Amino acid sequence: MAPPLDYATAALRVQLLQAAEDGDLRLFKRAATALDGGKGRLREAVEGAIASDCGAGALHVAARHGRLPVCAYLVEDLQLNVDAVDHSGCLFFSISC
Prior knowledge:
Layout: H1 7-22, H2 25-36, H3 42-47, H4 58-64, H5 68-77
Helix pairs in contact: 1-2, 1-4, 4-5
């Protein structure tokens, strides 16, 4: 079982997902960098932020709200897995239409 999250990490994950939903790329990058903690693993930090209610990651959230710049950053720069599914089995691009 994974260790419990500390409050600061949980708050940063919420901030990251909210920035993805709002399309605020600058805030998204700041939250991702803070989550990474200087390890140089932004992708892993972003992949760790999952909405607890539906299992959607940042890419799902950004796509669901039509936030193309955030989606582009996640796919092109961080190279997130475009085949990742949420708890309902939806791919990010199937909900972006």
